[in-house]
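Q: I have 349 residues here and want to know how they pack in 3D. Can you give me a structure?
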Amino acid sequence: MAEARNFLGAQKGKHVLIAPHTDVDGLSSCVLAVRAAEAVGARVTIRVPGKGEHAHSPAFQERLRRVRADALLVLDMGSRPGAVVPELPSLIVDHHASTAFPEGAHVLSGYGHEPVAPTSLLTYALVSPWVIPGPLEWLAVMGTAADLGVGAPIPGLKDALRRAGRKAVTEAVALLNAARRSSQFAAPLALDVLMQAGNASDISEGRIPGVEALRDCRLEVQREVGRCAKTPPRFAGNVALLLFSSGAQIHPLVAVRWAQRLPEHIVIAANTGYLPDRVNFVLRSRTEKDLIAFLRGLNLPPMGGEFANGHAQATGGSLTAPDFLRFIEALGFRGLRSHDVERRGVAPG
């Protein structure tokens, strides 16, 4: 924490580039970091990753390089090795399961320190020397509730949630997260709404321009979850596979719904329609099984995409169709072919 504060405090008069993850934890962290950087006297530019992107996506990294900043803050995305922008002084604030981070970067991570603090809470602690903490507490509450739930075993969360307004927080979290899940990918709008808000009620009660569009996003996501959750599962041992096609990022929500129905199974929700030429999938389970270890234990050859990142209880990936077919065949799902994982229209896969 001291090293991270020294890094941030040294940015007076400099150009700071902030790259946040697009969920509520990442976006709340971004607002907190912006407030602190401005208080330090830095000039701030924000770049939000696009649909299906993260800090280590080549296209996003190229957009970051074009900014010509003096320093980089990566929030809620830095859980793997490899420099995000080579030779650019960087601070990574994160909480995902990892012991490897971008080479040469300063790292503030909650991973391995129980209970694991989400990025927004870490950022809230980080920026406290430069801001008045009280008026910004609700942002840390939003990110914590979004990532861990309102009942998370974080010291002081219950009282902080009461101060922020529990009902307002849960409503605002649902609206903001729907923005990135929508097929329109309205994460930049969600960040704009969050930047303008003074509290969770500003969002939940629609006092900020843009909230109506977020409500439209939520309606689309609800409709797609309802449609795709009707997909009948395939079974291989204690693994259940749901295969469907949607332009919305609803595969995590479908997986959670089915994990509740199948508490003894590992549920894989695979979406063939989220990104062109990819199959995006997540794993969820009500068991205590380490899902990252489960995937890595398959001993698969190198895959052409994302695989086994995130949390022990919430992981997944994004693979080409051939690699995805090899992956599920290793799990025991036989007979699926390329046409089974094609991008489809409105019908479930």
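Q: Anything worth noting?
A: The mean pLDDT is 94. The first strand starts at residue 15 and ends at 20.
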